[in-house]
């Protein structure tokens, strides 16, 4: 097994200690956050909440009601948690999943979450040869085994593919024995955030995950959302741990859900910048960049013997740039890495660093 430097993106403390610099000297492309950053005014809004931050968290009814209105569901369907991570780890336990399936290549946390149940998940893996699209034969074979739990990210992190909506909707409807978890953590960074699974009517076998982390570039806030069918809400409520969302996170959530204009404007800017960076990366000869519907790209090194881990180390030491190594991701491997976009000038630095790598 090759070495694993980082389990997740964004570990700036560890990266800085490897690079022998301060975390603030690093430019972090290993994370996938809104390239426009957080809405202005968030920090000021939170400064007034420091007293509240030390109290017991409330049950967050105000924030749930607001989210329910925005997402056109009823408040009973909405759960708040410490990031979607809380739900990724708790949903399999709650469902007592025995035959789970992960649709990939995808986010690295699903498999460890399922292994905590003592079961080894099955994988339905799309391949590069088929443009990362699962064939109907693969779906048929995967569903023949009657999974009781199926999880996927949509858009898919890291590849930025969105499973065809009618296909997934049909699978959810025609396999009531399978509990589908559609992780929409990255949806607000996608070209088309409206292409989502907030279905009406809501199927009993569907859970949708949403997060504030990426949409508003606030991963340290730890604020995630789970949406369930109302009939299942009572059962999940008794299962969930209390107090996982701090009063500060709740206050931030309320502030952020009022920043609709900022969000729409940031999405328009992100789409343009994404196209620009794609053209730049696509012009590289020793790397292959895969088209993506969100503000991150999976890149493959084409030179024989290329190692994403080695490139990560080199860029970290020489350029103080951090990328995400995908060598441990099932269905990807040692030649793949991901870059999450940042501001235009920072993206230019990344492109320049990769050009230098090509020339070297
Ligand atoms: C697909 C996906 N799901 C979930 C998460 C975890 O998000 P959160 O910060 O809400 O726990 C991430 C974070 O990288 C992600 O990419």
Write structural notes for this entry.
With 360 residues, the protein is of the alpha/beta class. The chain has two domains: 12-30 and 261-359, Alpha-Beta Complex (Aspartate Aminotransferase, domain 1); 42-258, Type I PLP-dependent aspartate aminotransferase-like (Major domain) (Aspartate Aminotransferase, domain 2, 3-Layer(aba) Sandwich), CATH 3.40.640.10. 39% of the residues lie in helices and 15% in strands. It has 14 helices and 13 strands. The protein has helices spanning 12-19, 42-47, 50-53, 61-71, 83-95, 110-115, 136-144, 165-174, 212-215, 230-239, 247-256, 260-282, 308-319, 344-359, and strands spanning 27-28, 78-81, 100-104, 122-125, 149-153, 179-183, 206-211, 224-227, 287-289, 296-301, 321-322, 324-325, 336-340. It has a seven-stranded mixed β-sheet with strand order 2-8-7-6-5-3-4, sandwiched between helices. Strands 9-10-13-12 form a four-stranded antiparallel β-sheet. Strands 1-11 form a two-stranded parallel sheet. Helix 8 (165-174) links the parallel strand 5 and strand 6 (179-183). Helix 12 runs parallel beside helix 14 (344-359). The protein is globular. It starts with 11 loop residues before the first helix and ends with a helix. The model has no long low-confidence stretch (mean pLDDT 95). The structure holds pyridoxal-5'-phosphate. Pyridoxal-5'-phosphate binds at residues 32, 83-85, 107, 153, 157, 183, 185-186, 211, 213, 219, 224.
């Amino acid at each position: 097994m090759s070495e694993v430097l980082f389990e997740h993106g964004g570990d700036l403390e560890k990266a800085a200690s490897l690079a022998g610099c301060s975390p603030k000297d690093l430019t972090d492309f290993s994370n996938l956050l809104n390239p426009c950053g957080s809405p202005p005014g968030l920090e000021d809004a939170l400064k007034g909440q420091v007293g509240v931050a030390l109290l017991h968290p409330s049950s967050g009814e105000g924030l749930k009601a607001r989210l329910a209105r925005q997402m056109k569901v009823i408040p009973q369907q909405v759960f708040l948690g410490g990031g979607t991570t809380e739900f990724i780890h708790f949903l399999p336990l709650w469902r007592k999943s025995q035959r789970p399936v992960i649709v990939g290549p995808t986010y690295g946390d699903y498999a460890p979450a399922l292994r905590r149940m003592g079961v080894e998940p099955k994988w339905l893996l799309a391949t590069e040869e088929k443009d990362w699209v699962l064939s109907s034969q693969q779906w048929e074979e995967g569903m023949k085994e009657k999974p009781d739990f199926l999880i996927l990210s949509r858009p898919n992190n890291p590849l930025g593919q969105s499973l065809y909506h009618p296909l997934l909707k049909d699978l959810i409807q025609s396999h009531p024995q399978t509990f589908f978890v559609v992780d929409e953590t990255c949806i607000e960074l996608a070209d088309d955030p409206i292409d989502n699974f907030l279905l009406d009517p809501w199927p009993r076998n569907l859970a949708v995950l949403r997060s504030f982390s990426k949409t508003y570039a606030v991963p340290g806030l730890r604020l995630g959302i789970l949406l369930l069918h109302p009939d299942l809400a009572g059962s999940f409520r008794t299962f969930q741990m209390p107090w996982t969302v701090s009063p500060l996170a709740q206050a931030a959530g309320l502030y952020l859900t009022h920043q609709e204009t900022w969000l729409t404007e940031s999405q328009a800017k992100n789409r343009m910048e994404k196209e620009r960076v794609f053209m730049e990366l696509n012009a590289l000869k020793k790397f292959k960049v895969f088209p993506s519907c969100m503000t991150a790209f999976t890149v493959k090194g084409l030179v024989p013997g290329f190692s994403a881990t080695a490139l990560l180390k080199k860029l970290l030491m020489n350029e103080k740039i951090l990328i995400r190594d995908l060598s441990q991701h099932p269905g990807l491997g040692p030649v793949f890495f991901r870059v999450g976009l940042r501001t235009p000038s920072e993206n230019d630095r990344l492109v320049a660093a990769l050009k230098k790598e090509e020339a070297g």
